[in-house]
Amino acid sequence: IYDLASKCSVLLAKDFVHNAFTVILNEETSNSRSLYVEMNQTVISIYPRLKISKMYNFSSMEENCQILDKSLENNTTNARRETNKIEISNEKGVTLSCDFRYDFCTVTLAGWHHGISAGLFGTNDNEAGNEWTLPNGSITDNVQEFTQSWQVNKCSLVPKKEKPCPITAKQIICNVFFEESHSLLR
């Protein structure tokens, strides 16, 4: 268990041999975090506190602004959303699941990812002695050095300028029924 006191985005896990997946913990504004998950030309950004997700496809370079309320899949990545949980998987044996009620996410790797991934989640090779491997291949016993070595940005807290998704009629109705403070269904 690590206590990440830094306000930086960090690499949690990445397949450095086949580039099958990347998982980054991003620091957002107002002390919230998001997960950036990349698999097979598809990126899914998960915002646990907001209970929303956004999917992007690199091959078409278009943003799919749907909240993941149904099964969204392309030929190599599957994302499924339930009321308080999202699960993303690919055909290469990588699964990421987040439970929004408990702000708890897990990454599960199939056996053929043994020893080819690295990041704050370690080396995935069942060797306790090399779990704190730095990106340059050296090993440390200093938690601050270890966590700082896997930072993926310069830790600037400048708000990102994202183009907002267009609000659909379905989203407006859902907001009225389930998110408005005066709604009995909230």
From TrEMBL:
What is the superkingdom listed in this entry's lineage? Eukaryota
Q: Where is the signal peptide?
A: none
Residue ranges of domain VWFD in the record: 1-166
InterPro entries associated with the record = VWF_type-D
* PANTHER family referenced in this protein's UniProt entry, alphabetically: AGAP008810-PA (PTHR37860), VITELLOGENIN DOMAIN-CONTAINING PROTEIN (PTHR37860:SF2)
Q: What is this protein called?
A: APLP protein
Q: Which organism is it from?
A: Pitta sordida
